[in-house]
Amino acid sequence: MSPMTSQYVTVLDREIHYVEWGDRGRDVVVMWHGLARTCRDFDDLAEQLAPRYRVLCPDTIGRGLSQWSPAPDKEYCYPFYAALATAFVDALKIDRLRWIGTSMGGAIGTKVAGGALKGRITHLVLNDIGPRIADAAVNRIRSYAGKPPRFATVTELEAYFRTIYKPYGYLTDAQWRRLTETSTRRTEHGDAVQSPPRRFRSMGGLRSDHRKNVVLARREQRFAVARSRGRDDPPRSPLPARSHSGLRPRAGPQRAGALQDHRGFSGGLTPRVPGTARRYPASVAGWSARIESG
């Protein structure tokens, strides 16, 4: 199995950074991170899947090591993210793929699955995102995204991350350290801050876009859908799943187009509460089955 490598590709005149796991020539899994996060959030899951898949984890424009947009008002929005994702897949000559998306990454996956990549995404796993984005979730994201505080030390920044990302659930000290170090930049004054730029499109606009995208995605019935969220996270849409508008559960979990709702997962894709292993996968290994089902 090939080790993780750091790569860059230019699409739509923007340089996109991504990490690649596994051997080329195998089935492809694309993993897309959340609003204020980076591709390295998927390290544990990607390592688990790499023996069987070619795994690609991009940094969205303005995040991680990808280029910052020279036109943020026009490009930090779902339509441009979806165009970048499509161009990214095309540039790497990927015909068919599985998609795992967390939060914003799930919303992007929903948009392209029912649009530009319709018929090419065979499996769609949505983590921490649903057909509707609830006010509680939007307010929590607004409290930290796009306006990062500054700290003198990375240790202080890590303590801050442990607070705002507490809904992710249990992470080891090593995972918290990696999360911090892979999403930290220094300002011109030497302060440690979270890496995404300050300027994001309003969450209200993102919610409006997402509702439309869910309707489009539901019309494409040839891929399997699984949805998960953390046990303590504000729901992106009301439960049970039958109350969703747009994606709706089918009879049997393996039917194409089925929406499976799995509670108890953290942002790191591990059980949030000890003792849940009897109901949920006990490690990222359990997620291998999620991406292969359907």
Describe this structure as you would to a colleague.
The model is unreliable at 201-205 and 233-285 (pLDDT under 50). It contains nine helices and ten strands. With 294 residues, it is an alpha/beta fold. Helix 3 (78-91) packs across helix 4 (104-113). It has a single domain (5-135, 201-292), classed as Alpha/Beta hydrolase fold, catalytic domain (Rossmann fold, 3-Layer(aba) Sandwich), CATH 3.40.50.1820. The radius of gyration is 18 Å and the shape is globular. It has helices spanning 43-49, 72-75, 78-91, 104-113, 135-142, 154-164, 173-181, 203-219, 285-292, and strands at 5-11, 14-21, 28-32, 54-58, 97-102, 121-127, 184-186, 192-194, 224-229, 259-263. 30% of the residues lie in helices and 19% in strands.
